[in-house]
Amino acid sequence: MRITIFGGEVPTLDAAVAAAKQVEAEGFDGFYIPQIFGLDALTTLAIVGREVPRIELGTGVVPTYPRHPMMLAAQALTTQQACGGRLTLGIGLSHQIVIESMFGYSYDKPARHMREYLSILMPLLHGEASAFTGETLTGNGSIAVDAAPVPVLVAALGPRMLELAGRLTEGTVTWMTGPATLESHIVPSIQKAAADAGRPAPRVAVGLPVCVTDDAAGARERAAKTFEVYGMLPSYRAMLDREGAAGPADVAIVGDEATVAAGIKRVADAGATDFSAAEFATAPNERTRTRELLRSLL
Predict the structure, then answer these.
(1) What is the CATH number of the domain that holds 112?
(2) How much is the pLDDT for 9?
(3) Which of the residues in the chain have pLDDT under 70?
(4) Is residue 125 a contact partner of residue 76, using CB atoms and an 8 Å limit?
(5) 148, 85 Cβ separation under 8 angstroms
(6) Is residue 247 one of the residues assigned to a domain?
């Protein structure tokens, strides 16, 4: 299982470059950042890619609704050129409260939206023209950027989204989804969809909070506050319920070195191909121990 570092919401471009340089120097497989309400993720990774020459760079994830797939394809291919073919594009629906209340778009039939979006996006990212007219999206044209094809991971948790991810893309990226749910639901669902479509085995990139500490109870209390919102968003709430978890703190991987290593191994045993560690340690010794433990698992 590959281990990447989830950089979180880096405050500045310089901070992103510095964090990615450290991740690369320490031997990790990749560096991922989100697209939330801060720096633009793909612009940031284009700059990082010019400064950090070897590791994979990824988004976790870019919401689809605000960007037409032809525009996202142009931006992703430009970033791919800047980083020399090391970009993995994570995309997702975001959430109804964001798309409708903040952006003013309709969130009606989100699986249909993603199917139509991928029908336009995927050919473009592989150097082909798009010729698609759907119910809500149309994309007819090509993108003239000389870059390697861009692999796509879809934030897929429900059955229809997992089927789309397995059938049309390179895999899925998950968040707040524990090992029991990965093993019983996520992994078999996307693997079957990929196999039925004659595609290679999909990537399953799993993101979870991680903290090596001697105060596990305190770390879980901190996780409950830090990640509280994810326990209220319907898609994540459904995965937490499947796991039998009361909230995000229950799927965070916390404890001493042996406990955290065992928790990450459980994720690997559940079928994850990639583990994206969201470090949330606050004390200096916790930050050091968490990173050292993750490095020991490479």
Answers:
(1) 3.20.20.30
(2) 83
(3) none
(4) yes
(5) yes
(6) no
Q: What share of the chain is helix, strand, coil (3-state, %, to 5)?
A: 50, 20, 35
Residue 285 belongs to a domain: no
Residue 17: give the domain boundaries: 1-155
- CB of 60 within 8 A of CB of 81? no
Is residue 114 within 8 Å of residue 135, measured between CB atoms? no
State the DSSP code for 200: P
Residue 176 half-sphere exposure toward CB, CA atoms < 13 A: 25
- Tell me, rounded to whole angstroms, the distance of Cα 118 from its chain centroid: 17
Two structure tokens written together for 245: 């978890």
pLDDT at 20: 98
Q: What is the pLDDT of residues 200-248, one digit of tens each?
A: 999 999 999 999 999 999 999 999 999 999 999 999 999 999 999 999 9
DSSP secondary structure, 75-135, as one string:
HHHHHHHHTTS-EEEEEE---HIIIIIIS----SSHHHHHHHHHHHHHHHHTT--EEEE-S
Residue showing tokens 């979180």: 8
Own/partner contacts of 98-106, CB < 8 Å, gap of 24 or more, are 98/63, 99/63, 99/65, 103/65, 103/66, 105/65, 105/66
Domain assignment present for residue 241? The answer is no
Is 56 within the bounds of a domain? yes
Assess contact for 170 and 202: CB atoms under 8 A.
yes
Domains in the chain, number: 1
For the chain, give the number of residues: 298
- Residue 248 pLDDT: 98
